[in-house]
Amino acid sequence: MGRDKAFLPFGDGDLVHFVYERCKGVFAQTFLCFKNAQPHIGIPTISESQGINPTHAQDKALFSPLYGIVCAFKEIESAYIAFVSVDTPFVEPKSLYALYEKVRDSHTNGGYIVQIDEVGVAVREHFLLSVWHKNTLDSLTHAIRTQNFRVRNLVKELGFITYAVCDGDLDYNLNTQQDYQCALRHLENLNALNPDSKS
For the stretch 133-145, what's the b/e string if a residue is b when 16 or more beta carbons lie within 10 angstroms of its beta carbon? Predict the structure, then answer.
């Protein structure tokens, strides 16, 4: 993207506030996990930089979502933590909660959202729209230590379950400037359809 995605203008503010406002209240606590402290944004945060050990593997880990998941478990006293990446702004909070219930009720290590089309065919696996159990912490730490940073590999290895969602809004995964511009247009369309309730 060429800059920090979190602070791209989006809606009435920026992307990170947009995602936070959508997701807060789904669970007992909502935090934003950043590489470095962000005291000026007015939202509860977890700073990954506080958990850094000066090793080559952990320096590389800073660029992996796995490190953020580890830091979250070290900061939050909870059996389960749900994660949303800032670049999937239109995730439905109710889908995230339904995933959590499915993971909790099946007593598994975790789960993630799979986007399906109208006929039930999987079109995308969203490994970072996920719920993790705290008993995955050793596996997360080992993956970082061995520099196996692919989230896909770890969730498959841990036997994560999936939650299927037929939701075209999950197509908006912001990885490029073109993705970002498409998401802005989609947000305008949503707001035009429902002006009383800004998305």
Answer: bbebeebbeebbe
Q: What is the dihedral of CA 62, 115, 177, 185, to 10 degrees?
A: -140
User: Within 13 Å, how many C-alpha atoms sit on residue 155's CB side?
Assistant: 23
Judge contact between 159 and 166, C-beta under 8 A: no
Residue 161's identity, in one-letter code, is: I
- 90 and 171 Cβ atoms separated by less than 8 Å: no
Taking only the tens place, the pLDDT of each residue in 156-184 is 999 999 999 999 999 999 989 999 999 99
Task: Report the C-alpha gap between 16 and 34 in whole angstroms.
Answer: 10
CA distance 129 to 88: 8
- At 107 the pLDDT is 96
- The token pair that represents 101 in the structure block: 């219930």
Q: Could you tell me how far CA 169 lies from the centroid of its own chain?
A: 15
Copy the structure tokens of residue 150. 């692919």
Numbers of helices and strands, H then E, in the chain: 7, 8
Q: Which of 197, 196, 171 is nearest to 185 (CA)?
A: 171
Spatial CA neighbour of 93 closest among 19, 41, 26: 26
Phi and psi at residue 27, to the nearest 5°: -125, 175
The DSSP output letter for 33 is E
Measure Cα distances from 125 to 130, 163, 167, 176 in Å.
10, 10, 12, 18
